[in-house]
Design brief:
Blueprint: H1 3-26, H2 30-38, H3 41-54, E1 59-68, E2 71-81, E3 86-95, E4 102-105, E5 111-113, H4 114-127, H5 131-140, H6 142-147, E6 149-158, E7 164-168, E8 183-188, E9 191-196, E10 202-208, E11 211-218
Parallel strand pairs: 6-11
Antiparallel strand pairs: 1-2, 2-3, 3-4, 4-5, 6-7, 8-9, 9-10, 10-11
């Protein structure tokens, strides 16, 4: 094969890649934007977590279009569907005409690129290695336990008819927790679930700076 033939072949391949990229951008609409968000690893993990905690998938979404700094985005809001209300989970923005350009709203209400979020998740994965040590102290020390409760600690209860009820906890947690109980850990990208094998309730912890906070109780 001559160098000219090779040059033509490489050029054709580059043009094919560019055309494919352009086609992807052109085909990005509010439906494909939602599909892009739904396929993200942490969204799939959240769906799996919802099934494990409540017995069925309870995550729904709403979608609309917004303009931020003169740029148009598809906005996808994930939420838990409760019996009488919806509990927000996360909000994603997908650039119009480019479903690969995704932003996510953090718990602090900051809008960051999804690539930045992935880097933060990698750091949290390292932090999860220290979770068993943290949890041992959490169960053994009442003062330490009270210091690691989220400001909005909530309890989820499943009724016999399958409905899910949310209740805000008081400042002091009343559930019996001690170091003699047995728990199984399930790790997710943004949290750790600790299921009490004797009483059946599950404690959900989320990372906070270099430690953990109890954010939800499922029973």
């Amino acid at each position: 094969m001559t160098k000219y033939a090779i040059l033509i072949l490489v050029t054709s391949m580059l043009l094919s890649c560019e055309n494919a990229s352009s086609l992807l951008k052109k085909e990005c609409n509010i439906t494909t934007a939602q599909q892009s968000v739904w396929a993200l690893p942490e969204v799939q993990a959240k769906i799996e977590q919802s099934k494990a905690l409540s017995g069925k998938e309870r995550i729904q979404y709403t979608q609309d279009t917004i303009v931020v700094l003169k740029n148009t985005y598809y906005r996808i809001k994930l939420r838990y569907n409760l019996s009488y209300t919806q509990l927000p989970i996360a909000t994603y923005l997908v650039a119009k005409n480019n479903c690969n350009e995704i932003f996510i709203t953090t718990p602090a209400k900051e809008l960051i690129p999804y690539t930045t979020y992935q880097q933060q998740q990698a750091q949290q994965a390292q932090q999860q290695k220290n979770f068993p040590t943290f949890f041992k102290q959490f169960t053994a020390n009442m003062l330490f336990r009270q210091q690691h409760l989220a400001d909005q600690l909530t309890t989820f209860s499943t009724t016999p008819d399958g409905s899910l009820i949310l209740q805000e906890e008081q400042e002091l947690i009343t559930k019996n927790i001690n170091e003699l109980q047995t728990y199984t850990f399930t790790y997710y990208p943004d949290s750790v679930c600790c299921k009490n094998t004797e009483e059946g309730f599950t404690l959900l912890f989320a990372p906070h700076n270099d430690t953990w906070l109890l954010t939800q109780i499922w029973q």
